[in-house]
Design brief:
The chain is built from four helices and six strands; from the N terminus they run βααββαβαββ. The chain starts with a strand and ends with a strand. It has helices spanning 8-13, 23-32, 54-57, 76-86; strands at 2-6, 43-45, 48-52, 69-74, 94-98, 103-107. It is globular. It has one domain.
Length: 108
C-alpha cells in the first residue's frame, strides 16, 4: 500500500473539474516527482486515478508511444470528496491509500 497525504496546499492549488490539476492528482504527482505538465500526467477521471508508469514512459526507446498507466479504482468516499471539491463545497485534507489490488481509498 502507498499512502499519500492530500494537503491543504494541494486543495488550494487544485483546479475544479480538471483531471490533471485536481488536488488528488497534484498530491500523487508530487509524491512521484512528476510535474503536472509532463506528457505522462497523473489523471483523475470519474471512477479511476491513472498513474503513469514512469520507468516505461521516460524510456527513450518508447518515445512517441502512448504512455502506460497503473489504474486504481476510486472508492465511493474518494469519488464523493472529489465531487464535493468540484462543486465548491468544503473539502478537508485527507490521506489517500493506493492498494496493490488497484483500489484507492481514503481516511480523514
Amino acid at each position: 500500500m502507498i499512502t499519500i497525504e492530500v494537503t491543504q496546499r494541494d486543495i488550494d492549488k487544485g483546479t475544479r473539474g480538471s483531471p490533471y490539476y485536481c488536488p488528488v492528482a497534484l498530491a500523487i504527482a508530487q509524491y512521484l516527482g512528476v510535474h503536472p505538465d509532463e506528457e505522462a500526467q497523473v489523471q483523475v477521471i470519474t471512477n479511476t486515478v491513472n498513474i503513469p508508469d514512469l520507468a516505461y514512459n521516460r524510456d527513450p526507446r518508447v518515445a512517441g508511444w502512448l504512455p502506460r498507466f497503473q489504474i486504481y479504482n476510486l472508492d465511493s468516499q474518494v469519488k464523493t470528496w472529489i465531487q464535493r471539491f468540484d462543486d465548491r463545497l468544503p473539502s478537508e485534507p485527507f490521506t489517500l491509500h493506493l492498494w496493490e489490488q488497484g483500489v484507492a481509498t481514503m481516511t480523514t
